Predict the 3D structure of the following.
Amino acid sequence: MTSSTETVSKQDTIDYAARLGDDAIVIGHRLSEWVSRAPFIEEDVALGNVALDFIGHARMYYTYAAQLSNEQNSTDDITEDNFAYLRDERQFQNHLLHELHKGDFAYSTARQLLIDVYNKYFLEQLKKSSDETLAAIAVKAAKETNYHCRRSKSWTLRLGDGTTESHERMQLALNDIWGYSHELFELDDLEQRLVDAGVAVDCTLLKADWLKEVTAIIEEATLTVPDQEWAVSGGRQGYHTEHLGHLLTEMQFVHRSFPGAKW
Amino acid sequence: MQVIPTKSPTQFEREQFRRNSEFPELWQCLDQVKDPEIPALSLWDIGILKDIKRQGKQATVTITPTYSGCPAMDAIAEDITIAFKAHGIEKTVIITELSPAWTTDWMTDKGRNQLRDYGIAPPNDVIGGHEQPLNSDSKVLCPQCSSADTKLLSEYGSTACKALFQCNSCHESFDLFKHI
């Protein structure tokens, strides 16, 4: 990446940080839905902790977006909460894969495998961002992502190469979500500008490594990489599936019903 | 001549930084502030306390989060402010620094021993070193009976920073503070 930060518009960086925050908060919230519903207590705790890691990443991205927003307009007093709780569905720009419903345990496992391996390669590149704060967040998040990847991989192997039932459910889940994975590797104008400035990750370059690693795990788990041709996208432009609205309703309810509540 | 280091360079640097501070009384004051999740450990010993500056009745404290989603950070910031109030500091500004990212290498030797006494295995109690990732064959010294005959139950324990193990000798389950 080359550094030419002076050409970067602050608004672009705010939008980019918010997007990354959106991905993290949405998947973090989805994972938190497993708390008290996981197959056994240790896994319950693990899912809760992984959810918390993602919510932590979201807080770092949102706090940075808020800081830049306040620098841009000193009369504003924006915080991370404005991003998480006071924006509507169309303002969220997370990838669709993240917002899809919780599904059964195989579904959540398959999704997590695709996301965790993606994050591994994504954060490795974001560490090199010319934006120091984004690079620092990436260093922090990458350490935790290593643990996430190991967890996703071991569950994929366990379920894929497990019973007939678990194998079938894993394959069904992969078939269901595969079409949402392509969006992870798209660049829109905003990200292209930031890639040119050395701030954003060129995610089109991540696909080969991601596919190679995910394929190896899926095959080791005796599963098949889906060969479907359909692909859905639109999350980065604010076009969502029906699932996001329900998630936001639950996530934002308390904050919107009791503005400024403290306990 | 062979030099046998008794202290890791990282720890040496931290201690030197603290020794050179103009405000030793404030560092001592924060030795009383413990991690709310692990009350055995002070902020200094766990390695999240990075810098303290004082300008009259105002202080600036730089801390770094352990895990990014650590819910203890807000409580820690509050505890620091309260501890400083007793020292005549009316306003405490907490700066959360992300870079360089916190690592368990910053935990002091005293902190590691306190952790073990408290019943949590410190990261360096992983047999064969903590650098390689945990797996189902990983062995950790049991903080209760020191047996190495232990098994990994889950890579995630009671908090994100810990993994859950069980000792095959005394049958106690215990947390390992994971290397990060």
